[in-house]
Amino acid sequence: MPAVLDDDTLKPLVTDLPLPAGQDYAALRAEGLRHLQRLSGLVWTDYNDHDPGVTLLEALCFALTDVSYRAALPMADLLAVPPLARADNRLLVPPHQAFANHPVTLDDYKKLVLDRFHGQVENAWVTLLPRDPGQPAAAAGHYRVALELYPEPPGEASPLGAPERARLLAQVQHTLNRNRNLGEVFGPAVLLNLHPVVVGGRFDLGPDQNSVTVLAELLHELSEVIDPSLETMRARDALRQHMAVEDIFSGPRVQNQLYVQSTFRPQTRQVVLGTLLRQTGLAGGLTGQYQVIDLQLYDGAPGADQTTAVEQLVFADNEVGSLDATESLRRLTLTRQGVPIVVDQQLVLRAYRKLVRTANQRRQGEGGPGQLRLPRRPGRYANLGRYSSVQRLLPTLYGVGEDGPLPDTSALGRAHIMQLKGYMLLFDQLLADFCAQLAHVGDFFSIASQPETYYSGLLYDVPHVAPLLPGTNISPDESWGWKDRRGTEAKWDAYKAQPRNAYRRSLAALAASNGPNLARRRDFLAHMLARFGYTVRLRHETLDAALGEEEAAVVGYEQLLAQLDQATYHRGAAWVPLPTAPGQPARGESGLELFLFLLAGVESLARKWARGEQLYLLERQVQLGTQPHPNTPPRLVVRGPAQHFTRVLDVLEGQRRRPDLLALGPDTLRLNVDSDHPHDIWEVTLAGAPPPPGGAPGIDSVAQRLLAFAADFDRQLERVCLLDHVVLEPLAAREPNSGLVPDEFYHCQATMLLPGYAYRYRTQPGPDGVRQPSANRATLERLIRQYAPAHVLVNMVWLDYPQMREWEHLYGVLAHTSDLLRADGLPERVTLAAAQLRARAFLEDLLAAGAAPVR
Fold first, then answer.
1. Number of H helices, E strands in the chain
2. Which of 113, 572, 706, 770 could bond to 789 as cystine, CB 3.0-4.6 Å?
3. pLDDT in tens, 362-407
4. Number of neighbours of residue 576 by Cβ within 10 angstroms
């Protein structure tokens, strides 16, 4: 039977819904007529429907409404690809990645622990590291985490023994320190002890209720009041509750669970009888299963007076309340209309255990990628590049359609028809180009290199268009099929198959007349970065050396966009994992170092190490004198007075700026090292086969090889290193109640060590003879100031090569001994303190000499 609708449910049919200007045919037609009247009113007096000019205008207006409708399609449809094609668009990341952020609050760290250990940890609390009363407070950024494991129902063995619990605590601390921000550090995790709570009292059962079920649910309700559980959610359910997408996925990227942050509560430090009575009574009143008659609270801890009821229980910092269900069951009385009911306690305990198990399994088992993703509506592929000519919309009488002119059309009439087709072809090309551009929207938003930025539609589908295109050598009579139809079709097919026919070349020339393709691509990529909040001018000299300026900028922007999701997420992170070769230790760099790599092409020390480019290994490429390294063949052999490695770097740098080379053979050169000392002359030999002939005119190929070696060697030696001063803090400072006074040297402070010896960052002599910093130095310092976390003081220190060599050794010892740098998170306690002292002394000497702090 059909539903009956009353007047309140009926809605009027809207017939005058306003349309966008581009889709409003009537408005376009009226606007076109106004322009026609303004431009040709003196010679054109008839604007009725039968007028050919109005017919042409109406056809164009209809075509405009079509392309306007296409441009207004949802973005998912604009980016859709054919069913069998694969989209190469990595900028559109899903919501669970786009809206996530690296942990920045204590609740974020809590979510991280609950997610990574969701099958073991029921709750966690992250707080400032506590100190004893009377001791100085812990420095901000020093945290501890207290854990509560999933409770075991009474009578069942704990799933974790003592060794497993110790291992779990170490894993939690290591996970948090791996995901920490600069200036923050976590002490050892703490496992909270269960403080037994006993509840007694009398409850009156409602009619027709099962006493075992009600009593088991009552125990479960009491346990939830004493120690509330956290709530999890599914992404789809949160969306149905009208939560904003950015709020659903706010926090670290989770792998198993989405938690309702509004259910997070501080660690319970007490249980108050009044609160317990109110909450329990509320639950019973809502369900109608029982009524609270009386309620008592007892301390169930060993050694406590368990016979005297108390008004409240207070827990220590390392304790969490837990209902003693067995003892509470003995002290609970269930009545029906005042008459006591005898209940089998074993059945109640069994039902209670089932409720606890079911709740735990629900929280532990609902995780996984399925609940972390919102439903994705695939775009509908609309073949936006397909264009049908406006000439097909005109009446047959015009002769511009598929049928061509009428057989009795005169030569003058045929000429007029071709003239009209050529006039209409201008509009056809504009509309076809618009459709082609719209079909490549996905290419504009793609980070893959694009060969074009302007796309043209080919008008091969326009009826009888061949005579109007350049280089076809097809007459109108041949196109209309009035003579040699078969030969014309073969000639036309061959023309269309040519990738560089005259028509395609003309379109390419028109696109090039609007500016270089690379410049347009660069500007568009810069616009895309600006949409993400980044207004940068890349100075990526590593790319500039091999590519032109425009091409290097485009490649740099594409690399930045390709990793922007990861770089933004890890912006303030202290440790971002790096890809390493199999069998090599895990390496990581800070989020700030990652940004410097993307923006300026300068690599961190850890990134260099991950490729096996330690300085002491790279030095073996240069042989001083006649004693080669036994295991590494050199790339450059240097013979000359007063040789040492740093001097070789200075000489190579001088030759790159002002070459003074004399070829002595196919692989040997003489260098005038110092113009003030004519006898300071070196001979250098390049190892390896000489390059083929055909080098740059006027420069010997061996000289080119030497300069190329110098540039490549300089890029290998260049590196930066950001040291979080927390790494140098003694381990004892992270122990609870250690009483150590926080030192501001460790508090939210870091030092960026920069390669002052590298070619692009060396100082240069000024007009007055005083060496001035290079523009590259200023650029790098500006980037550090711009992207350094606001809560961290970053000192910038420029090192010469011996200093960087010494620092790399000190940092290598730290990386081997510090739990914050080791892959396993376990410190080498015997040698760590000495390594920290040496590194701190090195930094203090540098900072005392002068450094540029960044806030």
1. 29, 26
2. 572
3. 776 666 677 788 877 778 888 999 999 999 988 888 999 998 898 8
4. 22
